[in-house]
Write a structure and sequence with these properties.
This protein has eight helices and six strands; from the N terminus they run E-H-E-H-E-H-E-H-E-H-H-E-H-H. The protein has 221 residues and is α/β, with parallel strands linked by helices. The chain has one domain: Rossmann fold, CATH 3.40.50.720. The protein has a six-stranded parallel beta sheet with strand order 3-2-1-4-5-6, with helices on both faces. Strand 1 (14-17), helix 1 and strand 2 form a beta-alpha-beta unit. Helix 3 runs parallel beside helix 4 and helix 4 (109-140) runs parallel beside helix 6. It is globular, with a radius of gyration of 18 Å.
Length: 221
Amino acid sequence: MNLPVTSLPATGRRVLVSGASRGLGRAVAQVFAANGDVVAVHHGTRAAEARLTLESLSGTGHVLVGGDLSDPAEAARVADEAAEALGGIDVLVNNAAVNERHPLPTTSYEEWTEIWQRHLSVNVLATALLSHRAARNMIDRSVAGRIVNIGSRGAYRGEPDHPAYGATKAAVHALGQSLAVSLAPYGIGVVSVAPGFFETERVAGRLSGPEGEGIRGQSPF
């Protein structure tokens, strides 16, 4: 299938970053903005922190979009509001995720069920929903856009204390493979990355604590 598509410019792209209130999402938004792109900063519940992300971005035209991505209607609204505010979506970064500790031997069945449902809703379903909405926007505008899924090394190494996180991140990688093949004829590139540890708010304590040396020793860098 050879479809007429418009290549993306080097700068000035319209970018939606989910889960950008802090940590890796904030850093990703800042890099896009520093490159001359305009960014829609998404947040779930951390509105104040997302505002700080927005205020930290260089350039102008950036917007703040809040919503619960585990709700299909809310996910659609977030994508549509971002597209309307930016004039379209050229790049989607699926960064929003939950990661709760729940080792099987010490987790009750009720808590286990709730945690798995949350992980599936946010880590997998939300990624699929935003990808659909953003990709349709790109296709309708004949734009050779990009979708970037933030997976995890846990998808390949196993997460004994966070099994739902590891499993859902593996699903994110599998989804990315399927979408890459599906959307390539439209000029849309899809890539999934599997980061290790970043010194973000979530894991800084682990890196500076007793297990930090062991964690750093797992990386050849």
